[in-house]
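Researcher: Next entry in the queue.
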Amino acid sequence: ERWCTDFKILLQRRDVDLPRDRELVAQLHSIKRRVMPSGNVTFEAERTNRGHADRFWAIVLACQKERGLARGAEAEVGVRVIG
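Model: Structure for this entry, 83 residues:
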């Protein structure tokens, strides 16, 4: 939950630059927040022939790596789309 929330904040602040890519945008919008009966929160996406929001999760993980840097340090994460 924290990873998705952190990523949403980065997007809202315009602190992350993403390529203009329809498939990526579709994956960003495919993520749904769901509260389980236990009260736990999950984020899920439908599995399609193009994946399971894999690019979304890859970017979220890359942004989490950046969180580990010292305050004020900048990082650039290169993303190469294969396929």
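Model: The chain has one domain: 2-67.
Researcher: Noted, moving on.
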